[in-house]
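Hi L.,

You mentioned the student needs an example of a multi-chain input paired with its predicted structure. This one should do, with 459 residues in total across all chains.
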Amino acid sequence: MSDLIAVLTQAIGAEHVLTGADASEKAQGWSRLGAPLAVVRPASTEDVSRVVRICHAAGQPVVAWGGKTGLVEGANADGAIALSLERMHTIEEIDVSGGTVTVGAGCTLQALCEAVEEKGLFFPLDLGARGSATIGGNIATNAGGNRVLRYGMIREQVLGLEAVLADGTILSSLNHLIKNNAGYDLKQLFIGSEGTLGIVTRAVLRLRPRPAAQSVALLATDSFDRLPRLLRRFEKDLGGALSAFEVMWADFYALVTTPPAHGTAPLAHGHPFYILVEALGADESLSERFETVLGDALDAGDASDAVIAKSQGERNRIWALRDDVAQVARNAPIFTFDVSLRLSAMETYVAQVKADLAERWPAATCIVFGHLGDGNLHVIVGVGDRSRETRTAVEHIVYGALKPSNGSISAEHGVGLEKRAYLSWTRNEGEIALMRTLKRAMDPGNILNPGKVFEMNGE
Ligand code: ZN
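Structure written out for the whole complex:
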Protein backbone atom coordinates (compact mmCIF):
# COMPACT_ATOMS: atom_id res chain seq x y z
CA MET A 1 0.00 0.00 0.00
CA SER A 2 1.39 3.41 -0.93
CA ASP A 3 2.11 5.95 1.79
CA LEU A 4 -0.66 8.22 0.56
CA ILE A 5 -3.29 5.49 0.69
CA ALA A 6 -2.09 4.51 4.16
CA VAL A 7 -2.43 8.09 5.40
CA LEU A 8 -5.89 8.46 3.85
CA THR A 9 -6.95 5.15 5.38
CA GLN A 10 -5.84 6.36 8.77
CA ALA A 11 -7.74 9.63 8.27
CA ILE A 12 -11.17 8.30 7.28
CA GLY A 13 -11.12 4.53 7.84
CA ALA A 14 -10.18 1.57 5.64
CA GLU A 15 -13.77 0.81 4.57
CA HIS A 16 -14.01 4.27 3.01
CA VAL A 17 -10.80 4.14 0.97
CA LEU A 18 -11.47 1.87 -1.99
CA THR A 19 -8.68 0.69 -4.27
CA GLY A 20 -8.19 -1.93 -7.01
CA ALA A 21 -11.32 -3.69 -8.19
CA ASP A 22 -13.48 -1.89 -5.60
CA ALA A 23 -12.36 1.46 -7.03
CA SER A 24 -12.88 0.42 -10.67
CA GLU A 25 -16.36 -0.80 -9.84
CA LYS A 26 -17.19 2.71 -8.62
CA ALA A 27 -15.67 4.31 -11.72
CA GLN A 28 -18.81 3.80 -13.85
CA GLY A 29 -20.67 6.87 -15.04
CA TRP A 30 -22.35 8.58 -17.97
CA SER A 31 -18.97 9.69 -19.36
CA ARG A 32 -15.45 8.35 -18.82
CA LEU A 33 -14.21 8.51 -15.23
CA GLY A 34 -10.74 7.00 -15.80
CA ALA A 35 -8.88 4.79 -13.33
CA PRO A 36 -8.62 6.60 -9.98
CA LEU A 37 -5.81 5.73 -7.56
CA ALA A 38 -8.48 5.32 -4.92
CA VAL A 39 -12.08 6.29 -4.26
CA VAL A 40 -12.45 7.92 -0.84
CA ARG A 41 -15.81 8.43 0.81
CA PRO A 42 -15.71 11.10 3.51
CA ALA A 43 -18.68 11.38 5.89
CA SER A 44 -18.37 15.06 6.79
CA THR A 45 -16.93 18.39 5.70
CA GLU A 46 -14.15 17.84 8.24
CA ASP A 47 -13.35 14.51 6.55
CA VAL A 48 -13.26 16.22 3.14
CA SER A 49 -10.92 18.85 4.57
CA ARG A 50 -8.64 16.14 6.00
CA VAL A 51 -8.50 14.27 2.67
CA VAL A 52 -7.80 17.43 0.67
CA ARG A 53 -5.14 18.58 3.14
CA ILE A 54 -3.35 15.24 2.79
CA CYS A 55 -3.54 15.38 -1.01
CA HIS A 56 -2.41 19.01 -1.00
CA ALA A 57 0.69 18.11 1.00
CA ALA A 58 1.44 15.27 -1.41
CA GLY A 59 0.70 17.30 -4.59
CA GLN A 60 -1.91 14.66 -5.38
CA PRO A 61 -4.82 15.55 -7.71
CA VAL A 62 -8.33 15.20 -6.24
CA VAL A 63 -11.53 14.94 -8.27
CA ALA A 64 -14.92 15.33 -6.58
CA TRP A 65 -17.61 12.82 -7.55
CA GLY A 66 -21.35 13.35 -7.24
CA GLY A 67 -23.86 11.23 -9.16
CA LYS A 68 -21.39 10.69 -12.04
CA THR A 69 -24.03 11.68 -14.60
CA GLY A 70 -21.99 14.45 -16.24
CA LEU A 71 -21.58 14.14 -20.00
CA VAL A 72 -18.29 15.95 -20.69
CA GLU A 73 -15.72 14.00 -18.65
CA GLY A 74 -15.76 16.68 -15.99
CA ALA A 75 -15.28 14.00 -13.30
CA ASN A 76 -12.59 11.99 -15.07
CA ALA A 77 -10.34 10.95 -12.17
CA ASP A 78 -7.66 9.04 -14.04
CA GLY A 79 -4.64 8.78 -11.70
CA ALA A 80 -6.38 11.00 -9.14
CA ILE A 81 -8.03 10.48 -5.78
CA ALA A 82 -11.76 10.39 -6.49
CA LEU A 83 -13.55 12.03 -3.58
CA SER A 84 -17.11 10.72 -3.56
CA LEU A 85 -19.65 12.77 -1.58
CA GLU A 86 -22.18 9.91 -1.57
CA ARG A 87 -22.23 9.59 2.24
CA MET A 88 -22.92 13.30 2.72
CA HIS A 89 -26.55 13.18 1.67
CA THR A 90 -28.33 14.56 4.72
CA ILE A 91 -31.17 17.05 4.35
CA GLU A 92 -30.32 19.08 7.44
CA GLU A 93 -33.05 21.68 7.67
CA ILE A 94 -36.13 22.70 5.74
CA ASP A 95 -37.12 26.23 6.78
CA VAL A 96 -40.75 26.40 5.68
CA SER A 97 -41.39 30.05 6.56
CA GLY A 98 -38.03 31.19 5.18
CA GLY A 99 -38.35 29.01 2.09
CA THR A 100 -34.88 27.46 2.28
CA VAL A 101 -33.32 24.03 2.62
CA THR A 102 -29.86 23.20 3.91
CA VAL A 103 -28.53 20.02 2.36
CA GLY A 104 -25.40 17.90 2.05
CA ALA A 105 -23.72 17.85 -1.37
CA GLY A 106 -24.31 14.11 -1.82
CA CYS A 107 -28.12 14.30 -1.67
CA THR A 108 -29.72 13.37 -4.99
CA LEU A 109 -31.82 15.96 -6.76
CA GLN A 110 -34.85 13.68 -6.63
CA ALA A 111 -34.54 13.00 -2.89
CA LEU A 112 -34.33 16.73 -2.24
CA CYS A 113 -37.34 17.51 -4.43
CA GLU A 114 -39.45 14.83 -2.73
CA ALA A 115 -38.47 15.96 0.78
CA VAL A 116 -39.39 19.59 0.18
CA GLU A 117 -42.63 18.65 -1.60
CA GLU A 118 -43.78 16.90 1.55
CA LYS A 119 -43.58 20.29 3.25
CA GLY A 120 -45.62 21.99 0.52
CA LEU A 121 -42.54 23.51 -1.09
CA PHE A 122 -40.89 23.17 -4.48
CA PHE A 123 -37.31 23.00 -5.73
CA PRO A 124 -37.60 23.86 -9.41
CA LEU A 125 -34.45 22.28 -10.86
CA ASP A 126 -35.44 19.32 -13.02
CA LEU A 127 -33.35 17.21 -15.37
CA GLY A 128 -33.24 13.70 -16.80
CA ALA A 129 -30.54 12.49 -14.36
CA ARG A 130 -32.62 13.54 -11.31
CA GLY A 131 -32.49 10.09 -9.66
CA SER A 132 -28.68 9.93 -9.54
CA ALA A 133 -27.39 13.47 -9.99
CA THR A 134 -26.45 15.10 -6.69
CA ILE A 135 -26.90 18.65 -5.46
CA GLY A 136 -23.13 19.08 -5.16
CA GLY A 137 -22.64 18.01 -8.77
CA ASN A 138 -25.57 20.17 -9.89
CA ILE A 139 -23.92 23.18 -8.24
CA ALA A 140 -20.41 22.42 -9.49
CA THR A 141 -21.74 22.23 -13.05
CA ASN A 142 -24.42 24.95 -12.71
CA ALA A 143 -27.08 22.49 -13.87
CA GLY A 144 -29.93 23.75 -16.06
CA GLY A 145 -32.56 21.35 -17.39
CA ASN A 146 -36.25 21.68 -18.06
CA ARG A 147 -37.51 24.70 -16.11
CA VAL A 148 -34.72 27.25 -16.57
CA LEU A 149 -37.07 29.42 -18.60
CA ARG A 150 -39.05 30.24 -15.47
CA TYR A 151 -36.67 29.70 -12.55
CA GLY A 152 -33.14 30.03 -13.94
CA MET A 153 -30.28 27.59 -13.62
CA ILE A 154 -29.24 26.24 -10.21
CA ARG A 155 -27.11 29.37 -9.78
CA GLU A 156 -30.36 31.27 -9.14
CA GLN A 157 -31.42 28.78 -6.46
CA VAL A 158 -28.21 28.76 -4.40
CA LEU A 159 -28.25 31.18 -1.47
CA GLY A 160 -25.18 29.94 0.33
CA LEU A 161 -22.71 27.13 0.36
CA GLU A 162 -19.82 25.53 2.13
CA ALA A 163 -16.74 24.43 0.24
CA VAL A 164 -13.34 22.94 0.92
CA LEU A 165 -10.49 24.83 -0.71
CA ALA A 166 -7.37 23.34 -2.31
CA ASP A 167 -5.33 23.46 0.90
CA GLY A 168 -8.11 21.90 2.97
CA THR A 169 -9.47 25.16 4.38
CA ILE A 170 -13.22 25.02 5.02
CA LEU A 171 -14.99 28.06 3.61
CA SER A 172 -18.38 28.32 5.28
CA SER A 173 -20.65 30.72 3.45
CA LEU A 174 -24.04 29.26 4.36
CA ASN A 175 -25.98 32.44 3.69
CA HIS A 176 -29.78 32.24 4.02
CA LEU A 177 -30.56 35.74 2.79
CA ILE A 178 -31.98 36.46 -0.64
CA LYS A 179 -30.22 39.82 -0.66
CA ASN A 180 -26.67 40.06 0.61
CA ASN A 181 -24.48 42.59 -1.13
CA ALA A 182 -21.77 42.67 1.52
CA GLY A 183 -18.71 42.33 -0.68
CA TYR A 184 -17.87 39.61 -3.19
CA ASP A 185 -20.43 36.86 -3.66
CA LEU A 186 -17.93 34.07 -3.07
CA LYS A 187 -20.34 31.20 -3.69
CA GLN A 188 -20.31 32.08 -7.39
CA LEU A 189 -16.68 30.92 -7.57
CA PHE A 190 -17.83 27.36 -6.93
CA ILE A 191 -21.00 27.34 -9.02
CA GLY A 192 -20.24 26.08 -12.52
CA SER A 193 -16.46 25.90 -12.01
CA GLU A 194 -16.59 22.09 -12.21
CA GLY A 195 -14.72 21.40 -8.97
CA THR A 196 -11.59 23.25 -10.10
CA LEU A 197 -11.68 25.95 -7.38
CA GLY A 198 -13.09 24.05 -4.40
CA ILE A 199 -15.25 21.10 -3.39
CA VAL A 200 -18.84 21.95 -2.49
CA THR A 201 -19.86 20.11 0.70
CA ARG A 202 -23.17 21.71 1.78
CA ALA A 203 -25.59 24.24 0.36
CA VAL A 204 -28.49 26.48 1.31
CA LEU A 205 -31.02 26.49 -1.51
CA ARG A 206 -33.98 28.71 -2.20
CA LEU A 207 -37.39 27.03 -2.34
CA ARG A 208 -40.69 28.15 -3.89
CA PRO A 209 -44.27 27.36 -2.97
CA ARG A 210 -45.36 24.09 -4.53
CA PRO A 211 -47.51 24.90 -7.57
CA ALA A 212 -50.96 23.45 -7.05
CA ALA A 213 -51.80 23.32 -10.75
CA GLN A 214 -49.86 22.06 -13.73
CA SER A 215 -50.97 22.28 -17.36
CA VAL A 216 -49.15 20.44 -20.11
CA ALA A 217 -49.82 20.38 -23.83
CA LEU A 218 -48.13 19.02 -26.89
CA LEU A 219 -48.29 21.21 -29.97
CA ALA A 220 -47.19 20.80 -33.54
CA THR A 221 -46.19 23.56 -35.88
CA ASP A 222 -45.15 23.62 -39.50
CA SER A 223 -42.46 26.25 -39.72
CA PHE A 224 -39.60 27.34 -37.53
CA ASP A 225 -40.59 30.99 -37.52
CA ARG A 226 -43.78 30.03 -35.62
CA LEU A 227 -41.72 28.80 -32.66
CA PRO A 228 -40.50 32.15 -31.27
CA ARG A 229 -44.02 33.52 -31.80
CA LEU A 230 -45.52 30.66 -29.83
CA LEU A 231 -42.95 31.09 -27.08
CA ARG A 232 -43.61 34.82 -26.70
CA ARG A 233 -47.36 34.28 -26.88
CA PHE A 234 -47.31 31.75 -24.02
CA GLU A 235 -44.92 33.89 -21.98
CA LYS A 236 -47.07 36.96 -22.31
CA ASP A 237 -50.57 35.50 -22.20
CA LEU A 238 -49.87 33.09 -19.34
CA GLY A 239 -48.69 35.99 -17.20
CA GLY A 240 -45.44 34.38 -16.02
CA ALA A 241 -46.85 30.86 -15.49
CA LEU A 242 -44.96 29.34 -18.45
CA SER A 243 -42.41 26.91 -16.99
CA ALA A 244 -41.21 24.86 -19.97
CA PHE A 245 -41.06 25.28 -23.72
CA GLU A 246 -39.34 22.20 -25.07
CA VAL A 247 -39.06 21.59 -28.78
CA MET A 248 -38.58 18.24 -30.50
CA TRP A 249 -37.60 18.23 -34.15
CA ALA A 250 -39.56 15.66 -36.20
CA ASP A 251 -36.88 12.98 -36.16
CA PHE A 252 -36.60 13.09 -32.36
CA TYR A 253 -40.39 12.87 -32.05
CA ALA A 254 -40.39 9.90 -34.42
CA LEU A 255 -37.77 8.07 -32.34
CA VAL A 256 -39.59 8.51 -29.01
CA THR A 257 -43.01 7.54 -30.38
CA THR A 258 -42.15 4.38 -32.29
CA PRO A 259 -41.04 0.96 -30.97
CA PRO A 260 -38.83 -0.03 -29.28
CA ALA A 261 -39.63 3.24 -27.44
CA HIS A 262 -42.57 2.77 -25.06
CA GLY A 263 -44.13 6.11 -25.96
CA THR A 264 -46.97 6.49 -28.43
CA ALA A 265 -47.69 9.57 -30.53
CA PRO A 266 -50.32 11.93 -29.03
CA LEU A 267 -50.18 13.94 -32.30
CA ALA A 268 -49.79 12.53 -35.80
CA HIS A 269 -46.36 12.32 -37.35
CA GLY A 270 -45.56 14.57 -40.29
CA HIS A 271 -45.03 17.99 -38.70
CA PRO A 272 -41.49 19.39 -38.61
CA PHE A 273 -41.69 20.57 -34.96
CA TYR A 274 -43.41 19.36 -31.78
CA ILE A 275 -43.49 21.52 -28.67
CA LEU A 276 -44.07 20.54 -25.06
CA VAL A 277 -45.53 23.50 -23.23
CA GLU A 278 -45.94 23.47 -19.46
CA ALA A 279 -47.41 26.06 -17.12
CA LEU A 280 -47.35 25.95 -13.32
CA GLY A 281 -49.84 27.94 -11.29
CA ALA A 282 -51.60 28.38 -8.00
CA ASP A 283 -55.05 26.98 -8.77
CA GLU A 284 -57.39 25.45 -11.32
CA SER A 285 -57.97 28.79 -13.07
CA LEU A 286 -54.64 28.02 -14.75
CA SER A 287 -56.10 25.28 -16.93
CA GLU A 288 -58.85 27.56 -18.25
CA ARG A 289 -56.34 30.24 -19.14
CA PHE A 290 -53.99 27.65 -20.65
CA GLU A 291 -56.77 26.35 -22.91
CA THR A 292 -57.63 29.88 -24.03
CA VAL A 293 -54.05 30.70 -24.94
CA LEU A 294 -53.68 27.41 -26.76
CA GLY A 295 -56.92 28.07 -28.67
CA ASP A 296 -55.62 31.50 -29.67
CA ALA A 297 -52.38 29.95 -30.91
CA LEU A 298 -54.34 27.49 -33.07
CA ASP A 299 -56.65 30.24 -34.38
CA ALA A 300 -53.67 32.40 -35.30
CA GLY A 301 -52.07 29.49 -37.14
CA ASP A 302 -48.98 29.50 -34.90
CA ALA A 303 -49.84 25.94 -33.90
CA SER A 304 -51.18 23.45 -36.46
CA ASP A 305 -52.34 20.85 -33.97
CA ALA A 306 -52.41 20.45 -30.21
CA VAL A 307 -53.42 18.14 -27.42
CA ILE A 308 -53.85 19.09 -23.77
CA ALA A 309 -53.10 16.50 -21.11
CA LYS A 310 -56.26 15.77 -19.13
CA SER A 311 -54.81 13.86 -16.20
CA GLN A 312 -51.57 13.47 -14.28
CA GLY A 313 -50.99 10.25 -16.25
CA GLU A 314 -51.27 12.12 -19.54
CA ARG A 315 -49.03 14.93 -18.31
CA ASN A 316 -46.42 12.36 -17.31
CA ARG A 317 -46.70 10.57 -20.65
CA ILE A 318 -46.03 13.76 -22.62
CA TRP A 319 -43.07 14.61 -20.40
CA ALA A 320 -41.80 11.04 -20.76
CA LEU A 321 -41.53 11.55 -24.53
CA ARG A 322 -39.27 14.56 -24.06
CA ASP A 323 -37.30 12.73 -21.36
CA ASP A 324 -36.77 9.56 -23.43
CA VAL A 325 -33.42 10.80 -24.68
CA ALA A 326 -32.07 7.24 -24.56
CA GLN A 327 -33.81 6.60 -27.92
CA VAL A 328 -31.23 8.69 -29.75
CA ALA A 329 -28.73 5.91 -29.01
CA ARG A 330 -30.56 3.86 -31.67
CA ASN A 331 -28.31 5.71 -34.12
CA ALA A 332 -25.23 4.61 -32.15
CA PRO A 333 -22.41 5.39 -32.11
CA ILE A 334 -23.32 9.00 -31.42
CA PHE A 335 -21.80 12.28 -30.29
CA THR A 336 -23.92 14.53 -28.06
CA PHE A 337 -23.76 18.32 -27.90
CA ASP A 338 -25.53 21.05 -25.92
CA VAL A 339 -25.10 24.33 -27.71
CA SER A 340 -26.61 27.70 -26.90
CA LEU A 341 -27.57 30.38 -29.38
CA ARG A 342 -30.04 33.13 -30.11
CA LEU A 343 -33.44 32.04 -31.35
CA SER A 344 -33.00 34.22 -34.42
CA ALA A 345 -29.89 32.23 -35.42
CA MET A 346 -31.24 28.76 -34.68
CA GLU A 347 -32.89 27.76 -37.95
CA THR A 348 -29.85 28.74 -40.03
CA TYR A 349 -27.56 27.03 -37.52
CA VAL A 350 -29.36 23.67 -37.68
CA ALA A 351 -29.52 23.80 -41.49
CA GLN A 352 -25.80 24.58 -41.67
CA VAL A 353 -24.82 21.72 -39.35
CA LYS A 354 -27.00 19.24 -41.25
CA ALA A 355 -25.62 20.37 -44.61
CA ASP A 356 -21.99 20.22 -43.44
CA LEU A 357 -22.48 16.76 -41.95
CA ALA A 358 -24.24 15.44 -45.07
CA GLU A 359 -21.50 16.76 -47.30
CA ARG A 360 -18.87 14.75 -45.43
CA TRP A 361 -21.00 11.75 -44.37
CA PRO A 362 -24.03 11.32 -46.65
CA ALA A 363 -25.63 8.86 -44.20
CA ALA A 364 -25.10 11.07 -41.14
CA THR A 365 -27.96 11.42 -38.65
CA CYS A 366 -28.50 14.66 -36.77
CA ILE A 367 -31.25 14.64 -34.15
CA VAL A 368 -32.16 17.98 -32.58
CA PHE A 369 -34.30 18.78 -29.54
CA GLY A 370 -34.00 20.94 -26.50
CA HIS A 371 -34.90 23.78 -24.24
CA LEU A 372 -35.80 26.23 -26.97
CA GLY A 373 -37.13 28.74 -24.49
CA ASP A 374 -33.57 29.03 -23.13
CA GLY A 375 -31.88 29.06 -26.54
CA ASN A 376 -30.41 25.65 -25.67
CA LEU A 377 -30.36 22.89 -28.28
CA HIS A 378 -29.20 19.31 -27.85
CA VAL A 379 -27.67 18.06 -31.08
CA ILE A 380 -27.05 14.33 -31.43
CA VAL A 381 -24.86 13.30 -34.34
CA GLY A 382 -24.28 9.79 -35.68
CA VAL A 383 -21.80 9.24 -38.50
CA GLY A 384 -20.98 5.56 -38.01
CA ASP A 385 -17.82 5.66 -35.92
CA ARG A 386 -16.49 7.26 -32.77
CA SER A 387 -12.78 7.59 -33.53
CA ARG A 388 -10.92 10.60 -32.23
CA GLU A 389 -10.46 12.00 -35.74
CA THR A 390 -14.15 11.65 -36.50
CA ARG A 391 -15.10 13.30 -33.23
CA THR A 392 -12.84 16.26 -33.99
CA ALA A 393 -14.27 16.63 -37.48
CA VAL A 394 -17.85 16.55 -36.13
CA GLU A 395 -16.97 19.03 -33.36
CA HIS A 396 -15.58 21.44 -35.90
CA ILE A 397 -18.86 21.32 -37.79
CA VAL A 398 -21.16 21.59 -34.74
CA TYR A 399 -19.11 24.27 -32.93
CA GLY A 400 -17.89 26.02 -36.08
CA ALA A 401 -21.45 26.83 -37.16
CA LEU A 402 -21.95 28.70 -33.86
CA LYS A 403 -19.31 31.28 -34.68
CA PRO A 404 -21.31 33.63 -36.94
CA SER A 405 -23.90 34.19 -34.19
CA ASN A 406 -21.49 34.02 -31.20
CA GLY A 407 -23.22 30.97 -29.76
CA SER A 408 -21.81 28.89 -26.91
CA ILE A 409 -20.21 25.43 -27.08
CA SER A 410 -21.95 24.61 -23.81
CA ALA A 411 -25.38 25.71 -22.67
CA GLU A 412 -25.55 23.48 -19.62
CA HIS A 413 -23.27 20.40 -19.66
CA GLY A 414 -20.06 22.34 -18.97
CA VAL A 415 -16.62 21.90 -20.48
CA GLY A 416 -14.84 19.10 -18.57
CA LEU A 417 -12.18 17.47 -20.70
CA GLU A 418 -14.40 17.02 -23.71
CA LYS A 419 -14.80 20.65 -24.77
CA ARG A 420 -11.57 22.05 -23.37
CA ALA A 421 -10.01 22.51 -26.80
CA TYR A 422 -12.97 24.67 -27.84
CA LEU A 423 -13.22 27.00 -24.85
CA SER A 424 -11.66 29.81 -26.88
CA TRP A 425 -14.39 29.43 -29.51
CA THR A 426 -16.86 30.83 -26.97
CA ARG A 427 -14.78 32.76 -24.41
CA ASN A 428 -12.29 35.48 -25.35
CA GLU A 429 -8.63 35.72 -24.35
CA GLY A 430 -9.31 38.16 -21.53
CA GLU A 431 -11.99 35.89 -20.04
CA ILE A 432 -9.76 32.81 -20.18
CA ALA A 433 -6.81 34.75 -18.72
CA LEU A 434 -8.92 35.79 -15.70
CA MET A 435 -10.14 32.19 -15.27
CA ARG A 436 -6.47 31.12 -15.10
CA THR A 437 -5.66 33.90 -12.62
CA LEU A 438 -8.46 32.69 -10.34
CA LYS A 439 -7.32 29.09 -10.63
CA ARG A 440 -3.71 30.05 -9.85
CA ALA A 441 -4.78 32.06 -6.81
CA MET A 442 -7.11 29.45 -5.36
CA ASP A 443 -5.26 26.28 -6.31
CA PRO A 444 -1.60 27.12 -6.92
CA GLY A 445 -0.61 23.45 -6.81
CA ASN A 446 -3.26 22.61 -9.45
CA ILE A 447 -4.61 19.63 -7.50
CA LEU A 448 -8.39 20.26 -7.75
CA ASN A 449 -9.81 18.51 -10.82
CA PRO A 450 -6.70 19.49 -12.81
CA GLY A 451 -6.92 19.80 -16.57
CA LYS A 452 -10.70 20.35 -16.63
CA VAL A 453 -12.20 23.41 -18.36
CA PHE A 454 -8.70 24.59 -19.43
CA GLU A 455 -5.10 23.50 -19.00
CA MET A 456 -2.71 25.30 -16.66
CA ASN A 457 0.52 23.88 -18.04
CA GLY A 458 2.07 25.02 -21.28
CA GLU A 459 0.32 28.42 -21.20
ZN1 ZN B 1 -30.79 19.57 -21.37
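You could point out the following to them. The pocket of zinc ion is lined by residues 145, 371, 378, 412 (CB under 6 Å). The first strand starts at residue 17 and ends at 18.

Best wishes,
N.
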